[in-house]
Design a protein that fits this description.
The structure holds 2 protein chains of 2 kinds. Chain A is built from 11 helices and 9 strands. By secondary structure, chain A is α/β, with parallel strands linked by helices. In chain B, 28% of the residues lie in helices and 22% in strands. Chain B has 11 helices and 19 strands. In chain B, β6, α1 and β7 form a beta-alpha-beta unit. The chains are: A alpha/beta, B alpha/beta. The interface between A and B is medium-sized, with 29 and 24 residues.
Chain lengths: 312, 426
C-alpha cells in the first residue's frame, strides 16, 4: 500500500502491523537518543492548509525520529481563496523530491485528489481532510485503547466504545468507526439527531441520543470537540443545553465502569463537551494520546516509506 | 439550387428524398427520385433540429470558458439548430442591451439560432425584478426568463415574475434550489455524502421549491418551467401539478438520465454539477417521466469551465459539465435503446417541446413540406468514443471521456443551410 487516505484502506492485519510497529517504536521514546536511521535521506513534507499545531508537530517529530528530512509547508489559503492551487503546490513538492506528503486540508477529499490526480509520485498520508477522515487519529486511539484494555496486543474484539458529540462534522468519528469495526470493537455513536449525518443507520455501529443509557456498558468513551458556534446554525439551542445533555462531567464519569478509559482527540472545550475535573482525572488519557500519536505516525511513515512495504 | 437529402428516414420511417430550397422543405419524394445538390443520407434518421432550453455560452464575461461562437459550433455538431443562452453571464443578461448583444453574436456566427434568456432579477440577486419587458420587446425578443444558477427563492418576487411575463406569453424557468437547505452543498445528500464528508444537497431543497412554484403558477394562472429536474420526488410533484391542470413544463439534463452519485466517491470534480448527480432510483424515475411526458424536454445545462476550475479539489471546483455534443448520444442510450421513446418521441423531447416552451416559432417544426429546414441527420447505429480533446467547446469538462456512446450526428441543416456535413462543420 502506497497511501493512507482512509481508515477503510486498512484490513485487520495491516492495522495490527501498524500498531505492533508503533509499540516497538514507542520504546524508543524511553532512550536518551530518540532517533533511528531508517528514513535517512528521505523527505517528508507536512503540507498543512489548515492550522493544526498538534498534528503537524506530531508528524514532524515522528519523521525526525526516523531521521527523515522534514519540510513544513504551511499553505496560507488555497485555490478557494485564489492563492496557489493544490495542483501547483503539489507539482512544486514533486520537483523538490518529496517521498511522502502529509496533508491536512479543510476540504474533504483533498488528500484523495492529491494521491490520484497524477500530480505527484510520492506517498500521501491524510492528516485530516474536511469533515471526511483522520486515519492516524483513529490509529492512535486504537493504540491507546489496546494498551489499556487489551495489554497492548492483538485487536479490540468485543471492546465497547462510545463516541460522543458532533459526529456530523467529525473526521475523527468517521475514521474511528471504520477502524474500530475492522478491529472487532462495538461502537455506539451518541449525539443529538442534528449532529448525526443522514444515513448513519447504515454505518457499522449503533446510534443513541442518550449518553446516560450508554455509559454503564462502555470500556472507552471518546468525547468529540463541539464548537460552540454550532448553535448559531441551530444544531442545538445553546452551549449550556448541549453540555447538560451530552457533556461528560464527574457525575456521568462515576457511572462508567471502573476500568473504562476516557479519550479526546483535542483540542478540548473544557466546560462544553468535557468538564475540567474529568479532563484532569487520571482516567482521561489525552496526554498519553499525544505521545501515542507520535509512535503511530512513526509506524505509518516507516511502513509506507521504509523497507517493509510488503507488510502494509 | 435545391439540396436533396437522399435516402433520409424521417423519424426512422421509410427512406425518402427530402428536397430543401429557400430554407424550406419543398418536397418529400420517393428515395432516389429528386435532383439537385445531393447529400447522401442513406441509413440516416432525419429529425427536426434540436432545441436546447438551457445552455451556458459564457459570453460576455467568461470567454476563456466558452464564447457564443465556440458554443454555437458545439451546438451544431451536437445536432442543435437553436440554443437558449442562459443569463448568468458577466454582466448578467438583465437588460435589453446585454440580451441584444448575445443575440447579435449568435446571428453573426450563424450556426444556430441563439435565443438569449433574460434574468428574472437584477444581477440574479433575487431582490428586484429585472427589466423583463424591455428584454421581451428588444430585438432578441426574449420569452424565457431565468435566474438559473440561483433560485428565485423569494415567494412574493416569484409570484410577481410569473404574473408579469403573462403580458407577452413569457415563461419563468426556475432553478429550484432552496438556498438555506443547500448552503455549501457539494453532492446529493444521502448515505454517501455522510461517508465522504461532503455537505449534502437534499432532494427536498428542490422538491419544496417546485411544490411552491406549481401552486403559485396555478394561483396566478401563469406559465412555469422547471429547470434540470433531478429527483424522483420532483417528478411526483410535477405529475401531480399537471394532473391538476397547472401550466407547468419541465426539463431533464442528459447527465441526470445516466450518471449517479457513486461517481462522486472518486472526488473527481468532473462529476460536480448542480443539481447534483442523484441515485439510480432517481435516474429511473426521470427516464420514466421523460417517456410519459411528465418531463417535457431534454435540456443540456451545457456548463463549460476552464480546466483549472476542475483540475483541483472537489470543494474548490466549479459546478457543471459539458452537454451539447453528447446530449443526443445520451438520449439514444437512455431512451431509444431501452425502448422508452421512439424517434418521434425523441424529436418531441429534443426539438418540438423545447421550441414550444421557449416560443421559438421557427424551430421544432415537423418534417413536412412547408416547414423551415432545421434538420438533424443522425446515424443511430454508429458509436464513438468520447474524448475531451475531441470536442468543439473551448472547455474540456465532459464527464463522458473514454466512454463509448451510440448515436452520431452526421449532417445538420439550419434554416436550409448546411452547418454540419459528415460530422464536421461545413
Amino acid at each position: 500500500m502506497k497511501h493512507l487516505l482512509s481508515a477503510a484502506d486498512l484490513d485487520r492485519d495491516q492495522v495490527i502491523t501498524i500498531l505492533d510497529t508503533a509499540a516497538e517504536l514507542a520504546s524508543l521514546t524511553d532512550r536518551s537518543v530518540k532517533k533511528l536511521p531508517t528514513l535517512r535521506g528521505r523527505t517528508v513534507v507536512n503540507l498543512f492548509f489548515e492550522d493544526s499545531t498538534r498534528t503537524r508537530i506530531s508528524f514532524e517529530v515522528a519523521a525526525k525520529r526516523l531521521s527523515a528530512d522534514v519540510i513544513n509547508f504551511a499553505a496560507k489559503g488555497s485555490s478557494v481563496s485564489k492563492g496557489e492551487s493544490l495542483k501547483d503546490t503539489a507539482l512544486t513538492l514533486e520537483a523538490m523530491g518529496a517521498d511522502a506528503v502529509v496533508i491536512r486540508h479543510h476540504l474533504s477529499g483533498a488528500p484523495h485528489r492529491l494521491a490520484t490526480a497524477g500530480w505527484i509520485g510520492g506517498s500521501v498520508v491524510n492528516a485530516g481532510d474536511g469533515t471526511h477522515e483522520h486515519p492516524t487519529q483513529a490509529l492512535l486511539d486504537a493504540f491507546t485503547m489496546r494498551r489499556h484494555l487489551r495489554s497492548g496486543t492483538g485487536d479490540l474484539e468485543g471492546v465497547r466504545v462510545g463516541i460522543v458529540g458532533d459526529v456530523l462534522h467529525s473526521r475523527v468519528a468517521r475514521s474511528n468507526v471504520l477502524l474500530l469495526k475492522t478491529l472487532g470493537a462495538h461502537v455506539t455513536l451518541v449525539a443529538p439527531p442534528t449532529l448525526l449525518p443522514l444515513g448513519v443507520e447504515t454505518w457499522p455501529c449503533e446510534v443513541s441520543y442518550d449518553i446516560d443509557e450508554v455509559l454503564p456498558r462502555l470500556d472507552a468513551i471518546m468525547m468529540l470537540r463541539v464548537q460552540g458556534e454550532r448553535m448559531h446554525d441551530a444544531y442545538f439551542p445553546s452551549a449550556l443545553e448541549y453540555s447538560r445533555l451530552y457533556g461528560l462531567d464527574s457525575a456521568r464519569m462515576s457511572r462508567l465502569p471502573d476500568h473504562a478509559i476516557i479519550l479526546h482527540p483535542g483540542p478540548m472545550n473544557r466546560g462544553m463537551e468535557i468538564s475540567a475535573d474529568v479532563a484532569d482525572s487520571p482516567r482521561a488519557l489525552m496526554v498519553e494520546q499525544v505521545a501515542n500519536g507520535v509512535s503511530v505516525r512513526m509506524a505509518v511513515l516507516y511502513l509506507l516509506l521504509g523497507g517493509m512495504k510488503e507488510n502494509v | 439550387m435545391s439540396i436533396v437529402l437522399r435516402g433520409a428516414r424521417p423519424y426512422g420511417e421509410a427512406a425518402v428524398d427530402l428536397v430543401i430550397a429557400d430554407g424550406i422543405i419543398v418536397e418529400i419524394v420517393p428515395e432516389g427520385t429528386a435532383t439537385g445538390e445531393v447529400i447522401d443520407c442513406t441509413g440516416l434518421v432525419a429529425l427536426p433540429g434540436f432545441v436546447d432550453l438551457h445552455t451556458h455560452l459564457r459570453e460576455p464575461g467568461r470567454e476563456d470558458a466558452e464564447t457564443v461562437d465556440s458554443g454555437s459550433r458545439a451546438a451544431a455538431l451536437g445536432g442543435y439548430t437553436c440554443v437558449h443562452a442562459m443569463a448568468n453571464t458577466s454582466p448578467v443578461a438583465d437588460t435589453a442591451g446585454v440580451v441584444e448583444q448575445v443575440w447579435r453574436l449568435g446571428e453573426r456566427t450563424g450556426l444556430v439560432d441563439v435565443r438569449p434568456v433574460g434574468a428574472v432579477t437584477v444581477g440574479l440577486a433575487g431582490e428586484r425584478m429585472a427589466e423583463i419587458g424591455a428584454m421581451a420587446n428588444s430585438a432578441a425578443a426574449v420569452r424565457v426568463f431565468s435566474d438559473d444558477g440561483k433560485c428565485v427563492h423569494d415567494a412574493a418576487l416569484m409570484r410577481r415574475a410569473l404574473e408579469y411575463v403573462k403580458a407577452f406569453d413569457g415563461v419563468v424557468a426556475q432553478h429550484a434550489q432552496e438556498p438555506r437547505l443547500t448552503e455549501n452543498a457539494q453532492m446529493n445528500e444521502g448515505i454517501l455524502s455522510g461517508e465522504l464528508g461532503l455537505t449534502g444537497w437534499p432532494a427536498v431543497a428542490e422538491e419544496a421549491i417546485i411544490a411552491r412554484d406549481v401552486l403559485l403558477a396555478q394561483h396566478v394562472d401563469s406559465r412555469l418551467h422547471v429547470c434540470h429536474v433531478s429527483t424522483a420526488g420532483s417528478v411526483e410533484v410535477i405529475r401531480w401539478a399537471k394532473g391538476r391542470g397547472v401550466n407547468v413544463t419541465a426539463e431533464v439534463c442528459p447527465h441526470h438520465l445516466i450518471l449517479t452519485e457513486d461517481l462522486v466517491a472518486s472526488y473527481d470534480p468532473l462529476y460536480k454539477v448542480n443539481p447534483p448527480l442523484r441515485t439510480a432510483a432517481d435516474v429511473a424515475a426521470l427516464r420514466e417521466a421523460l417517456a410519459d411526458g411528465t418531463i417535457d424536454a431534454i435540456a443540456t445545462d451545457h456548463a463549460p469551465h476552464p480546466h483549472e476550475d476542475k483540475d483541483c479539489e472537489w470543494g474548490a471546483a466549479a459546478f457543471g459539465m459539458l452537454g451539447l455534443e453528447t446530449a443526443f448520444s445520451i438520449a439514444v442510450k437512455t431512451m431509444i435503446e431501452p425502448g422508452l421513446l421512439d424517434w418521434r418521441g425523441l424529436a418531441d423531447r429534443m426539438s418540438v417541446a423545447p421550441a414550444r416552451i421557449g416560443r421559438v416559432r421557427e424551430q421544432g417544426h415537423d418534417l413536412t413540406v412547408g416547414s423551415i429546414a432545421n434538420i438533424a441527420l443522425v446515424d443511430p447505429a454508429a458509436t464513438r468514443v468520447i474524448t475531451s480533446d475531441g470536442l468543439a467547446s473551448k472547455s474540456r469538462n465532459t464527464p463522458y471521456a473514454s466512454m463509448e456512446l451510440p448515436g452520431v450526428v452526421v449532417h445538420v441543416l439550419y434554416g436550409g443551410n448546411v452547418t454540419v456535413l459528415d460530422g464536421a462543420l461545413a
